[in-house]
Amino acid sequence: MSVFTSARTASRSDATSLAASARSGSDLGLLVLRWAVGLTMAAHGSQKLFGWFGGGGLDGTEAFFASSGYTAAQTMAVVAALTEVLCGLGLAVGLLTPLAGAGVVGVMLNAIAVKWGSGFFGPNGIEFELLLLVAAVSLTLAGPGRFAADRLLPGLRTHRLSHGLAAVALGAAAAGIVLVTLRS
After folding, report:
1. Residue 13 resides in a domain
2. Taking CA atoms, which of 17, 50, 84, 165 is between 20 and 30 Å from 65?
3. In angstroms, what CA-CA distances link 148 with 15, 40, 130?
4. pLDDT score recorded for residue 117
5. Number of domains in the chain
6. Are 139 and 33 in contact (CB under 8 A)?
7. Positive or negative CA dihedral for 24, 43, 105, 158?
8. Domain assignment of residue 159, yes or no
9. Do the Cβ atoms of 7 and 51 come closer than 8 Å?
10. pLDDT (tens digit, 0 to 9) for every residue of the chain, 184 residues total?
11. How far does Cα 80 stand from its chain's mean position?
């Protein structure tokens, strides 16, 4: 074995090690982001559904949707609350990540539409909802990473960008349909 062959082999080994290290760093970053977005969404949904964490429960959420111009306020309260809880938990554990991301995209687009006239910053600004929307889109496109329950499901074991794109489109379409048909 020549010195050049040995150096080339060592170089490949170093590159493989570096790639594995970078991949696990990305996977850890995706896990942290999934936890942050997922648990935030689940807690926010729990405010709507159960009145936890200072929330108004279903009655308060229904009143909010009615005052925001939604014609089916009670249905919207239940759907929004369940979507936030279930999709938030789905993101947190990385289960059915594309669908969980689609749910968060749909809910956040509706929230942004309701708050749109209040500007970006301030008590009723859209910055928080926009941040959650962008994080959900990013997770949906990037995939959940290695540390996710999706790794146990054969169809989702390897993330495909097409799944992420379809999920983002699904969430946006659902939000559009809700805004056009249920909000005056």
Report:
1. no
2. 165
3. 25, 18, 25
4. 87
5. 1
6. yes
7. positive
8. yes
9. no
10. 554 444 455 455 555 554 555 567 899 999 999 999 999 999 999 999 999 999 999 999 999 999 999 999 999 999 999 999 999 999 999 999 999 999 999 999 999 999 998 889 888 899 999 999 999 999 999 999 999 999 998 877 777 888 899 999 999 999 999 999 998 8
11. 14
- What is the Cα–Cα distance from 3 to 9, expressed in whole angstroms? 10
**Which conformational region is residue 143 in: left (phi greater than 0), alpha (psi within -120 to 50 degrees), or beta?**
left
The token duo for 66 is 């009615």
The answer to whether residue 155 is domain-embedded is yes
Q: Which domain holds residue 130?
A: 26-182
DSSP helix/strand/coil, 90: helix
| Residue 162, in any domain of the structure | yes
Both structure tokens of 142: 């990037």
